[in-house]
Amino acid sequence: MRSSLDLLPEPPTRPGNGHLQDWALQPLALIEEGAHRSAAGGLFRLRLGLPAVVGFSAAWNRALLTDLHTFRSAGSFSRVVPYLSGGVILTDAPAHAPRRGMVNQGFGKRHMETLRERVRAALPPIPAGEWDALAWADSAALNMLNAAYFSGEFDPGLLHAFLAPLRHPFPVPALPRPLLFARVDAELRRLAHKRLTAGNGDDLLALLAPLPGGLEETRVSLAAGHDTTTHALAWAAWHLAHSPEWHAPEHHGAVLKEVLRLYPPGWMGSRRLARNLRWNTPDGQSVLLPRGTLALYSPYLSGRDTALWLQASEFRPQRWQAAPPAWAYLPFGGGERICLGMHLAHLMILEALTTLPPLEPLRGNATPRPGVTLGPAGPLVVRTMQQHPPGRGFNVMTRCSGE
């Protein structure tokens, strides 16, 4: 019986730095090796300069995302990224539920219908000839977020400059940018004053501005929503180019779910243990996790777990005819802390996919590149097809019925 964190399986270490070098340079390979070595128990150790464990079982995911008194956000990875260090993201129980309830109104399904037309109108045109789906998705996400949050009134150049560092690998997103943040906060105050004075707006800023801490919630949720939307949209377009039989509005929901299973933008989530925890693994072992341990969960590993998903590494939208395994599909987290912008992300991505013509893939690098979010290395170059290949709709139905 395991009785110590030191006895958990772990990937190979490097002399002098444990797993820090691999965590910085090739984190996906690192956690995949850890998952391989701990397949039966679903929990492995990382040596990152402080006690750290990664779990990917359904039981671990459920506990971490629902036991908010044991697994705390304070001290998690989000605190080291200025863009995400604040607001409801870092608010712990018991204050989390009332604060989340306060900001939820604008992000619910009902309010999304209010935003749908302006989000659709903000989409950029499809370029002629060859074009990079990743670059187009970036532009589309910027425009749609500006429309949803600010009715398109935020300075586009400033918005681009604010969000640009998030597209780079670490440590770029973690570097302080006080002057840039001051300019963004000034623009937020200007637009908020306009809405508070008029009193009749219905964009997201109009709903958040009157709330205590509403401008911080606006800035943090805006940052959290950009790269996540960009990358999911780009991957969806790339897969539709390779599998045009799925390119129809009635299939786009399943396509998006499958993209988010394979490439969850939030590929790793983190908490800190507020107390000692005795954890029983699925293989019947037990381990004592000390207070202060960095507790990690990985939607990337859970979404590709061959014990939970048939042909887990393949793009198979037809699998979404059935419900996913419990606590295995977590691109937006889960429980009380489920992503605030989940409905907005679905709205933006699905609206964007309906505007795409039939596509043909030309060349690109879709290798997942982890940073603050998981994105394709890019570019993803496609071009418009003249018409759908014949018989594609029948093939989709045949494949679905045979799942």
> How much of the polypeptide forms β-strand, as a percent range?
5-15%
What does the radius of gyration come to? Answer: 21 Å
Regarding quaternary structure, what we see is: single chain
CATH superfamily of the domain at 5-101 and 131-140 and 231-401: Cytochrome P450
The dominant shape is globular
By DSSP, the count of extended strands is: 12
CATH architecture of the domain at 5-101 and 131-140 and 231-401: Orthogonal Bundle
Name the poorly predicted regions: 388-403
Distance between the termini: 41 Å
The top level CATH class name of the domain at 5-101 and 131-140 and 231-401: Mainly Alpha
Written overview of the protein:
With about 400 residues, the protein is an alpha+beta fold. It has a domain of about 280 residues: Cytochrome p450 (Orthogonal Bundle), CATH 1.10.630. It is about 40% helix and about 10% strand. The chain is built from 14 helices and 12 strands. α5 packs across α6, α10 crosses α11 and α11 crosses α13. The longest helix is centred in the middle third of the chain and has 29 residues. The chain is globular. The two termini are about 40 Å apart.
